[in-house]
Specification:
CATH topology of the largest domain: Rossmann fold
Shape: globular
Number of domains: 2
Largest sheet: 8 strands, mixed
Number of helices: 10
Structural class: alpha/beta
Strand content: 15-25%
Oligomer: single chain
Order of helices and strands: EEEHEEHEHHHEHEHEEHHHEE
Strand order of the largest sheet: 6-7-8-3-9-10-12-11
Distance between the termini: 33 Å
CATH superfamily of the largest domain: P-loop containing nucleotide triphosphate hydrolases
CATH class of the largest domain: Alpha Beta
Number of strands: 12
């Protein structure tokens, strides 16, 4: 069996607060093969973005492992990590706040090249050619090169962010809700561009979103998170056809539909207060809001393989 491009093993990230330790990511494990996309879904505050940043070591992990081609990147030195970041990049949710307003489009895209070792630096002519190529690849017209972020619409700013992440020819990109701030028509353009680039360059993505319709469109596998814990993990087709965890079912029920045959189906609705992620009790953190919660759920949280490649912490939500 081939080694996954990216693998996390029992990854944890805690933050110290005046009231105790906030458990933002709790024992998360996953694998992403070369050229594949892992969708990470869940409501706001569930730890999706923190997970992506911890994988890239933008946050220091509390415990666990992050493997890139089998090597634990959490043990890398600062210089080793600097080299690795050529292969591991990120696209941020808000393209306007992630781009320096004082820099032109060309300067923004070419800036990562300045961090290359002197032996690999390009001549000005080569750098211009590389930027022009990346702009064309990402759907940015040549005359945009001298514009500034405030002169662009949201879709074009996100294309600049994507071009900036692609300039070093990475192998893995964390996409942190890259289309959530865009109009629906622009969302489709960016998603299609991401998939075209993936096919052309064999890119691997961690695609973070709260939009299940989007994640179904782009993902090979989907991981559902709730308050830092993984509650379900399966292929995209399996998860949408046969969701197991009550939280997953509730998320899928929230997707608007025009299919009249589905409007009368039994629905799982979420009630109750969200428990605190600071010094949380053991067990499933969804238990206080779950209509099927048992004493076992409240005492232990454990992913179990219910079918080949389909993991769930609970199967009571199966519909």
């Amino acid at each position: 069996m081939s080694t996954p491009l990216i693998e996390a093993v029992d990854l944890c990230k805690y933050f110290k607060t005046p009231k105790g330790m906030l458990h933002a990511v709790e024992n998360v494990s996953f694998k992403i093969e070369e050229g594949k996309t892992l969708g990470v879904v869940g409501e706001s505050g569930c730890g999706k973005s923190t997970l992506g940043r911890t994988v890239l070591r933008l946050h220091k992990a509390t415990s666990g492992k992050v493997l890139y081609k089998g090597e634990d990147v959490l043990s890398f030195s600062k210089s080793e990590m600097h080299k690795l970041h050529r292969n591991m990049q990120m696209i941020f949710q808000d393209p306007y706040s992630s781009l320096d307003p004082r820099m032109s489009v060309r300067a923004l895209i070419s800036e990562p090249l300045s961090g290359l070792p002197k032996s690999e630096r390009m001549s000005p002519a080569q750098e211009k050619e590389s930027v022009d190529h990346i702009m064309e690849m990402c759907g940015l017209p040549a005359h945009y090169a001298n514009l500034y972020p405030h002169e662009l619409d949201g879709g074009m700013r996100q294309r600049v962010g994507l071009a900036r992440s692609m300039i070093l020819d990475p192998r893995f990109i964390v996409c942190d809700e890259p289309v959530s701030a865009l109009d629906v028509s622009i969302q489709a353009q960016i998603l299609n561009l991401l998939m075209d680039l993936q096919d052309e360059h064999k890119l691997s993505y961690m695609f973070i979103t709260h939009d299940l319709a989007v994640v179904k469109h782009i993902s090979d596998d989907i991981m559902v998170m709730y308050m830092g814990q993984v509650v379900e993990y399966a292929s995209s087709a399996t998860l949408f056809a046969n969701p197991m965890h009550p939280y997953t079912v509730a998320l899928l029920n929230s997707i608007p539909t025009i299919d009249l045959s589905k409007r009368n189906r039994e629905r799982i609705t979420i009630h109750g207060e969200i428990s605190s992620p600071v010094n949380p009790k053991p067990g499933c953190r969804f238990a206080p809001r779950c209509p099927y919660a048992s004493e076992e759920c409240r005492n232990e949280h454990k992913l179990v393989e219910v079918e080949s490649g389909h993991y769930a912490a609970c199967t009571k939500g199966v519909r």
